[in-house]
């Protein structure tokens, strides 16, 4: 059976394959090979540019053009050729080296120095840098733009509904009113804190040999400052952050930091998905219908909040993957074991489920319509929430046991506007204070919620 969206084992490449195409060139096997070639090529160019490595003369413009084409415009045919080599070598990084040696035969000056391809490197030198490049591309070009789009879409809700009063619910029970926009603003602020942290996670790399001591490098060229060279290569040529202390492997702590930060963003969005699902259930939001869509196979009236449910489910899967990688990858026996290798092949899976979730949330947000009548009705049925301002004003003017008096009047009971007004009239308060309390309604007792919503 041929692989297709219908036959794929994972929904990432099957049912949801159209939503994850932006990640294929980054996190696929092709993407890994492409980045390995990029690292190997840049390493060879760095050796050629090093004044103390006379055996590799500076490359001509023609040689650099050939190498740059391999590094920057890597073709699927080249990846397929690597897989052909791998069927013989049973070693994926060695297969990349053989491809480059084959390509080097096109120019005598490259063919002459082909044994310097992969010079002094262990496979992990190439792999760790490739993974960092993949994560940078996936984070900066796919994930962060979608994260910002999600935050901006919720910000639009905050501004649009800044002045729409809403009954709060703490412990599921009626509480002091807020506005719908203010509750959206809370989410925006939380999401943007995580976006800032995700942006700032440094992506580390190393190229220091079999156990991190430049053993092979120094055996061939003991006079070269290989630490300085590695730092210049990783930071200058690749734009990553140099890690000076490693075993055979870069210890992956930064990957755990990155994935933990992404997981926090996802958890906040999951919280939002559930809240909006609840607001739809309460009738605070209606959902725009889409021509031809069916909500239930048996109940024609249904318009289900499926986008927020889809998002919630995929965020859960993404976080399960991120959390496993974050806890597993920094652990390696002694100077190296291979348990990280198979796990690292799943770097893109958490990204993919996150992308599916973000797009589902965005679709759900685009279909929301506020139901002002439902919001107003809920507020008008909960005059007891004004017990808070009344007892607070009573405290100001020295009335004894204000909390207890309001508790006796309201706890566990509904109360009408008239009953509250009558209670206010009995209080020994200045007339000006009574006027202000009588003017309060559940719809206008919202503090500075409007200002907060507009400022986010």
TrEMBL record:
- PANTHER family membership: ADENYLOSUCCINATE LYASE
Give one Pfam family, short name only. Lyase_1
Q: What molecular functions are annotated in GO for this chain?
A: lyase activity
- Its protein name is Adenylosuccinate lyase
Reactions catalysed? (2S)-2-[5-amino-1-(5-phospho-beta-D-ribosyl)imidazole-4-carboxamido]succinate = 5-amino-1-(5-phospho-beta-D-ribosyl)imidazole-4-carboxamide + fumarate; N(6)-(1,2-dicarboxyethyl)-AMP = fumarate + AMP
Coiled coil residues, start to end: none
Instruction: Using the record's annotation, list all stretches that form the Adenylosuccinate lyase PurB C-terminal domain.
Output: 332-446
The UniProt similarity line reads: Belongs to the lyase 1 family. Adenylosuccinate lyase subfamily.
Function, as annotated, reads: Catalyzes two reactions in de novo purine nucleotide biosynthesis. Catalyzes the breakdown of 5-aminoimidazole- (N-succinylocarboxamide) ribotide (SAICAR or 2-[5-amino-1-(5-phospho-beta-D-ribosyl)imidazole-4-carboxamido]succinate) to 5-aminoimidazole-4-carboxamide ribotide (AICAR or 5-amino-1-(5-phospho-beta-D-ribosyl)imidazole-4-carboxamide) and fumarate, and of adenylosuccinate (ADS or N(6)-(1,2-dicarboxyethyl)-AMP) to adenosine monophosphate (AMP) and fumarate.
Keywords of this entry: Lyase, Purine biosynthesis
The source's domain of life comes to Bacteria
> Does the UniProt entry include the keyword Cell membrane?
no
Fumarate lyase N-terminal domain segment(s): 14-313
| EC nos | 4.3.2.2
The family database entries (Gene3D superfamilies) matched by this protein are listed as: Fumarase/aspartase (C-terminal domain) (1.10.40.30), Fumarase/aspartase (Central domain) (1.20.200.10), Fumarase/aspartase (N-terminal domain) (1.10.275.10)
* Pathway(s) served: Purine metabolism; AMP biosynthesis via de novo pathway; AMP from IMP: step 2/2; Purine metabolism; IMP biosynthesis via de novo pathway; 5-amino-1-(5-phospho-D-ribosyl)imidazole-4-carboxamide from 5-amino-1-(5-phospho-D-ribosyl)imidazole-4-carboxylate: step 2/2
NCBIfam families given for it? PRK09285.1 (NF006764), purB (TIGR00928)
Q: Which organism is it from?
A: Thiopseudomonas acetoxidans
Q: Which InterPro entries does this chain map to? A: Fumarase/histidase_N, Fumarate_lyase_CS, Fumarate_lyase_fam, Fumarate_lyase_N, L-Aspartase-like, Pur_lyase, PurB_bact, PurB_C
């Amino acid at each position: 059976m041929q692989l297709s969206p219908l036959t794929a084992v994972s929904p990432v490449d099957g049912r949801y394959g159209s939503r994850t195409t932006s990640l294929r060139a980054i996190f696929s096997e092709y993407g890994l090979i492409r980045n390995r070639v990029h690292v190997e090529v840049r390493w060879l160019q760095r050796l050629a540019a090093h004044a103390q490595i006379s055996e590799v003369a500076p490359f001509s413009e023609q040689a650099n053009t050939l190498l740059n084409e391999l590094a920057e415009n890597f073709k699927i045919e080249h990846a397929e050729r690597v897989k052909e080599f791998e069927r013989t070598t049973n070693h994926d990084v060695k297969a990349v080296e053989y491809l480059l040696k084959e390509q080097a035969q096109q120019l005598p000056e490259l063919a002459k120095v082909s044994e310097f391809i992969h010079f002094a490197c262990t496979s992990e030198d190439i792999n760790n840098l490739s993974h960092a490049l993949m994560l940078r591309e996936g984070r900066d070009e796919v994930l962060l733009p979608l994260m910002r789009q999600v935050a901006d879409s919720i910000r639009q809700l905050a501004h649009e509904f800044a002045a729409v009063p809403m009954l709060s619910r703490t412990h599921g029970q009626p509480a002091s009113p807020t506005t719908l926009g203010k509750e959206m603003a809370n989410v925006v602020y939380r999401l943007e804190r995580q976006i800032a942290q995700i942006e700032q996670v440094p992506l580390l790399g190393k190229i220091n040999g079999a156990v991190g001591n430049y053993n092979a490098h120094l055996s061939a060229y003991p006079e070269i400052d290989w630490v300085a060279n590695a730092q210049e290569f990783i930071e200058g040529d690749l734009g990553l952050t140099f890690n000076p202390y490693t075993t055979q492997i870069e210890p992956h702590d930064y990957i755990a930091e990155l994935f933990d930060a992404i997981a926090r963003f996802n958890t906040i969005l999951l919280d939002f998905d559930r809240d909006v699902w609840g607001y739809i259930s309460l009738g605070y939001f209606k959902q725009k219908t889409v021509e031809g869509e069916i909500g239930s196979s048996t109940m024609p009236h249904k318009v289900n909040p499926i986008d927020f449910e889809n998002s919630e489910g995929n965020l859960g899967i993404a976080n399960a993957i991120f959390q496993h990688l974050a806890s597993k990858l920094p652990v390696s026996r002694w100077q190296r074991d291979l348990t990280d290798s198979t796990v690292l092949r799943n770097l893109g899976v958490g990204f993919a489920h996150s992308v599916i979730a973000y797009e589902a949330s965005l679709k759900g947000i685009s279909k929301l319509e506020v139901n002002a009548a439902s919001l107003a009705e809920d507020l008008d049925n909960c005059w007891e929430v004004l017990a808070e301002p009344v007892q607070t004003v009573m405290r100001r003017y020295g009335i004894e046991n204000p909390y207890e008096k309001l508790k006796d009047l309201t706890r566990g009971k509904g109360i009408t506007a008239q009953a509250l007004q009558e209670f206010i009239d009995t209080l020994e308060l200045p007339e000006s204070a009574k006027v202000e309390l009588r003017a309060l309604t559940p719809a206008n007792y919202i503090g500075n919620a409007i200002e907060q919503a507009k400022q986010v």
